[in-house]
Amino acid sequence: MTKLQKTFNPNHVFVDTNVLVGGYSGDTRYQKDYDCLHYLFSLIGKKLYISSLSVAQLVSVFQKKKTNEEITHIVLDLEQRFNIIDFTIKDIEAALVETGADIEDNIQFVLAKKLKCYIVVTNNYKDYRFLQGIEVLRPAKIRQIPK
């Protein structure tokens, strides 16, 4: 068994903001994100994580596209389906020394690492590919995670 397998838990899956926004948008252009989320929801024995930063960003994006009632329903659904993780000043400090493309992705990565998530699901593969220690999956490849 490699060090990576000992350090990270293959049953911990972190989902990036862009997949949530696409999956909950209702827009057929993001069908892969929707399908990805529903596949993840069907997995038994996996712990699904998102950050409070993702929830805030999702609400911000949807304020222009959905009613407050629709947004509230989405947030309640997220609360039921995911472990929502808050971030701290220490997480931001750790994110500032990472080599990813932007601070938001770095914060997500730091949280995923802190939670020992082996898999990060994102549409921003290019921003995560340099971050060591995780497997990055695009929504279209989500079925690589066995049921």
Structure overview:
This protein has a single domain, classed as 5'-nuclease (Rossmann fold, 3-Layer(aba) Sandwich). Helix 8 links the parallel strand 4 and strand 5. The N terminus is likely disordered. It contains eight helices and five strands, in the order H-E-H-H-E-H-H-E-H-H-E-H-E.
Structural descriptors:
147 residues; Rossmann fold; five-stranded parallel sheet; globular; disordered N terminus
Under the CATH scheme, the architecture is 3-Layer(aba) Sandwich
Task: Pick out the low-confidence regions.
Answer: 1-5
Strand residues, percent: 15-25%
The number of distinct structural domains comes to 1
**H/E topology pattern:** HEHHEHHEHHEHE
- In CATH terms, the superfamily is 5'-nuclease
The major beta sheet can be summarized as:
5 strands, parallel
How would the blueprint of this fold be written?
Elements: H1 3-7, E1 9-15, H2 17-25, H3 31-42, E2 47-51, H4 52-62, H5 68-81, E3 83-85, H6 89-96, H7 103-114, E4 117-121, H8 125-128, E5 135-137
Parallel strand pairs: 1-2, 1-4, 2-3, 4-5
Helix pairs in contact: 2-3, 2-4, 6-7
In brief:
This protein is an alpha/beta fold and 147 residues long. Helices cover 51% and strands 16% of the residues.
